[in-house]
Amino acid sequence: MNRLQQFVLSLFAAPRLNMREDYGKVRRAQRWVASISMPWRRTPYRQTLVRLGDRSISVRVFQPQQRTRDDVLVFFHGGGWVTGDIETYTPACANMAELTGCAVASVNYRLAPEHPFPAGLNDCYGVAQQVLANPLAAGIDRAENIVLIGDSAGGNLAAATSLLLKERGQRAFSRQILLYPVTHWDHDPETSPFDSVREYGEGLRLTNTEIDDYFDLYVPEPMEQRGPLVSPLMADDLSGQPTTLILTAEQDLLRDEGEAYGQAIAAADGTAEVHRIPSALHGFIQLPKFSKPMREAYEHINAFLDAHPAPKVGA
Prior knowledge:
This protein is α/β, with parallel strands linked by helices and 315 residues long. It has 9 helices and 8 strands. Helices cover 36% and strands 18% of the residues. The model is unreliable at 1-12 (pLDDT under 50). This is Alpha/beta hydrolase.
C-alpha cells in the first residue's frame, strides 16, 4: 500500500483512544450515533428476554417488511467484547433483516471489563443452547432454520459457541456466518503469523494497540487468551463445525486470521466459504446499506443462504 492510499484510508480511521480508560465514552458515543440512524422505525422489532438461571438476557428480534426466508439469524454483535449492544447495533440489524428477508435476533450479552471472559461467551452459549433445544418457545419453527452470525468479536463468540456446543456433545447449528472474526490471540506485528497484522495494524479502523487492549480487558490472564474459546484458530479439532461463510475486509488487520479459520475448517473436512470484500475496512456491516462493501457482503450472504438451505427434517 503506497503513501497516498494510506493517507486516504486514514481519513476513515476511528479517533485514537485509550480503550482501557475510555471504553465508557465509546459506549455512549456509539449509542448516540445509533440514535440518529433510524432505519428500524420502518423495521418492526420486539424485545424479549431469555432466562439463564437467575439472569435474563435481552434479545431484540427484527422482522423485515417482506419475510422471504424462513431462516432466523441469531446475531452476536462486535465491539471488542467491551463496547456495542443491541441499541448500537439496531441500525445494522434492521438492515440485516431487510437485506436478507430473514428475522434477526440480536443478543445483548454481558460486556468486559465488568464481566470478563467467559461471561459474554456463557451468555451467547446459553441463548444458543435454549433456542436450539426449544425453538418453538422462541417463535422459531424448527432449529434447522437458525443461522448463527456475528461480526468481529461477535464472530469470535459465534465460532466459540459452535466449538463449545460440539465439545459438549450438544445440538449444534447447521450454518454460521462469521464477519471479519477474531480467531487468533497474537496481533503484535513483530510476532504475528499474519501479514495483514503488519500491513493494516496502524492508522485505520482498528489498530494493533486497540485489539490488544480489547483482549486484555476481555481476558486479563494472557495464557487464557491462547485457548480455543478465545482464539478459535488454536482449536486442536475443528471437525463437525457448521457449514460456514466467512467474510473478511481487504484492509483489515483481522483479514488473514479470519481466512485462515475458514481454511482450517475446510482442512478438517468441513464446508467453509471465504470471501474477501475488496477495499473494505473493518466494521463494514455497520455502513449504510447503499455502500459498496455492504452491497457486496449481502450478495455473498444471500448466495450462501440460497446455496445452503436449512436441512430437511430427518436428513
